[in-house]
Amino acid sequence: MTVRVVTDSVADLPDSVVRELDIVVVPLSVRFGTDVYRDRIDLTPEQFYRRIKQDKVIFPVTSVPSPVAYADVYDRLAAETDEILVISFSSRLSANYDVAVQSIGLMKPKCQVEVIDSRWAVMAQGFIVIASAKAAKSGAGLDEVTAVARYNINRVDFRASFDTLEYLRRGGRIGTAQAFLGSMLKINPIITLKDGLVEPVGRTRSRAKAIENLYEFATGYANIEEIAVEDADCADEAGSLVERLGSLFPRERIFRSKLSPVIGTHTGPGLVLVAILGDKK
Do the domains at 4-28+64-153 and 156-280 have one common CATH topology? Predict the structure, then answer.
């Protein structure tokens, strides 16, 4: 039986990829007051960014799936396979990984379930999932698919340019990027994740220079296997960056994705991100 690969909505995988590789995505939730929405199911990125711009009173919060939600997924897949690999976003940013592990004990039919902490998020996590799902579809067993996932954890990275770190500060996910707060009234911070936590890697005085930094990040790779450009309500800037990156990598193979509402809760609008799977120079 084919290993089934499960991940969460924070991976920002395009719907076409999810369908093609038979990936199962468990949604996190976003809450505005008493209104609760499943990430990307009840609330699209476009609807979300429009709402946070319009609603200045209610600040959204996020929540992980319930143990029952994960257990239901495991039970359904156990009817199709006896091996499941779950790839979660960083356990240092959320309880999602712990819930995915705890939910194994709630399964009714039993099968082998392996849960991996990717230590990443967004399409950096997504590339780990894609590589694992491709291995599964080729007939690899659970041990081999798990090895593919663990190998690629160290081969992904991303850079993201923000208009503001205010949303990260409000959500408590700012990590060492706290050092940027209170510095200049107008900076364009650039961040990544390091060991699963938000890490500052630079700041610029202008948006144009920040986008240039993302391009230069991509030029630091000797080999690019996959590349993605994501945006949070700034598609024009992301599109222009894709055009530039076409000089380094086939433009038709560059993934385009929107930052999910769950991620957008902690970043706000105006974010542009480049994620890469490959080998650095």
Answer: no
What topology is assigned to 4-28+64-153 in CATH? Rossmann fold (3.40.50)
* Tokens, residue 49: 């960014």
Q: Beta strand pairing status for 83-88 and 112-117?
A: parallel
Task: Identify the residue whose tokens are 């476009």.
Answer: 46
Domain 156-280 has CATH 3.40.50.410: no
Say what the pLDDT of residue 175 is. Answer: 52
Query: What does the pLDDT look like over 22-77, one tens digit per residue?
Result: 999 999 999 999 999 999 999 999 999 999 888 776 789 999 999 999 999 999 99
pTM: 0.93
Structure confidence at residue 148 (pLDDT): 98
Domain boundaries, the chain: 4-28+64-153, 156-280
Cα 90 from Cα 130, distance rounded (Å): 17
- The average confidence (pLDDT) of the chain is 92
**What sections of the chain are H helices per DSSP?**
15-20, 45-54, 67-78, 96-102, 122-137, 142-153, 166-171, 207-219, 235-245, 261-267
Structure tokens at 138: 């080729």
Alpha-carbon distances of 176 from 173, 179, 276, rounded to whole Å: 9, 6, 22
